[in-house]
TrEMBL record, chains A, B:
Domain Pyruvate carboxyltransferase: 7-276
GO MF terms held by the record: hydroxymethylglutaryl-CoA lyase activity; metal ion binding
Listed SUPFAM superfamilies: Aldolase
Name the UniProt record assigns to this protein: Hydroxymethylglutaryl-CoA lyase
GO biological process: ketone body biosynthetic process; L-leucine catabolic process
Organism of derivation: Rhodococcus wratislaviensis (Tsukamurella wratislaviensis)
Matching Pfam families: HMGL-like (PF00682)
UniProt similarity note: Belongs to the HMG-CoA lyase family.
InterPro entries: Aldolase_TIM, HMGL, PYR_CT
């Protein structure tokens, strides 16, 4: 497949990144950082999660964040809901976002440890949720976690993952995100996987969500791109990870992904210096050195006069 | 070109990595770290540089290091020489190493700033050195710095780089390393570049030396591999960089590269847990957190029970 000339990048740091931070991030800081991301040109940002605040206290201020952020009108805001109860809560503020993410783990063990239900139970709920989301006029994006491997079960069958994807599509999801939750994908498999997924899911937006657990996240993104994938998720500052198992490190860094794509001549619509600015601001809010590389080096244009 | 099933990886940390460290590393520590690398299965390690000690004091103990390390008999040790004077000094201890690296920058400006000579002057000296190295029965590996771009001149012409490579090969170099000195390569260009280089240099070992300046080093390595490249250089712990310009960050991390290749089913002959152990030991010697990812996550086999 020919390399896509333009890709979509959804910034997931404000949800997927922040939820893994051990220290509470003040709402003011979250709002400021999301506004900075909006100025960087993101048309898709995942900003909140309607989960139980006792489970993920870091995201308990989701509604306040949605209320207070100021992003351009064409920015689609996404919220994540784990179950119908979460969707009920989200729909109470239905006019504050545009996309709803629902999810399942392809691996039975990971799903059980993550949401304490079987895959079948989760999918039954997901079918109902997808239909409700579509009926509300919202975009439904389904996420399949551990798509490329499970820390508990090892390799996850490609056919099983694509069966789940098809079921989501039939229920009304217009986008399916394949999550490398604990960073077990490699570029050879990414190439094979996305060729198969794009072939199996015509008319559905196929999104790659890689982690940089052992440093090969951008190699996976490149391989997926070469296979025809044109939609990606990433996290500024390389924030994020996965609570299960402990020790899983972060998402791929948005600024590194954008830099790679721009250097290859692939358009993202993003203003890279502003993405880096937002990541540096996150670094200052969190008070520790973040692990993205562009945050240190800056865009390639700065190479001649490093700052 | 079919993906190589087996690759060579040269560990360059003890030279390319250590020389960029601001604090002096005691000789005892260098010896212990190189011995640990030998135990990890490297058959190629770059260990020393015959440069003026007032220019790079960190490597002033090169001969003592060569004297004291204990690595398996099949480990080929490489030394770097910048000019004929350096080669004279290296040949005084000729039986302590097996490979000699000579180099030039493809970019005129970078060459001038790095070694204060024109490319023509450097190449005239390199021609003489290559012949002397071969006459001594040693392997001559030529390195072309700034092969993929120059921080001062921008894009570097591919034809110019390959002309230099051919001249090195004619002078007796059996290996040509293409160095992404300041991390300006991207995977699309790596793919094009290595296809052209392998085509133009039959019978010569073509080696990729990438940096991870903006996080895409492993994507470049994957692209080079897919183009048929089967020889790589990397640095444990992601140590290294380039003194010109200041701010250029490190090489690709050996442990991340090895992990990616092993996960893809590409053999390296290396013992990954031992590579990680050596990188963690380097971290402890240098007293700061190094930037490789596998140093935190461990090999994929540890994912189920993170340490």
């Amino acid at each position: 497949m020919a390399r896509p000339q333009r890709v979509q990048i959804r910034e997931v740091g404000p949800r997927d990144g922040f939820q893994n931070e051990p220290e509470h991030i003040p709402t003011d800081d979250k709002v400021r950082l999301i506004n900075a991301l909006g100025r960087a040109g993101f048309t898709r940002i995942e900003v909140a999660s309607f989960v139980r605040p006792d489970v993920i206290p870091q995201l308990a201020d989701g509604v306040e964040v949605l209320d207070r952020i100021e992003v351009p009108d064409d920015t689609k805001l996404m919220v994540l809901v784990p179950n119908s109860k979460g969707l009920d809560n989200a729909l109470k503020v239905r006019d504050k976002f545009h996309e709803v993410a629902i999810f399942v783990s392809a691996s039975e063990t990971h799903n059980k440890k993550n949401v304490n239900r079987t895959v079948d139970e989760t999918m039954a709920d997901n079918d109902v949720m997808a239909k409700r989301i579509v009926a509300e006029g919202l975009d439904c994006a389904a996420v399949i976690a551990t798509s490329f491997g499970c820390p508990f079960e090892g390799k996850v069958d490609l056919g099983r993952v694509l069966d789940l994807a098809e079921r989501f599509a039939e229920a009304g999801a217009t986008e399916i995100g394949f999550g490398d939750t604990t960073g077990m994908c490699n570029p050879a498999y990414a190439s094979e996987f996305f060729a198969a997924a794009l072939d199996r899911l015509p008319g559905v937006e196929v999104t790659a969500h890689f982690h940089n657990t052992r440093g090969q996240g951008l190699a996976n993104a490149y391989a997926a791109l070469e296979a025809g994938c044109a939609s990606f998720e990433s996290s500024f500052g390389e924030l994020g990870g996965c609570p299960v198992p402990a020790g899983s490190t972060g998402n791929i860094a948005t600024e590194d992904l954008v830099s790679m794509f721009h250097e290859m001549g692939v358009e993202t619509g993003l203003d890279l210096p502003r993405v880096i600015e937002a990541a540096r601001e996150a670094q200052s809010v969190l008070g520790r050195k973040l692990t993205s590389h562009s945050i240190v080096a800056g865009p390639i244009e700065w190479a001649a006069s490093p700052r």
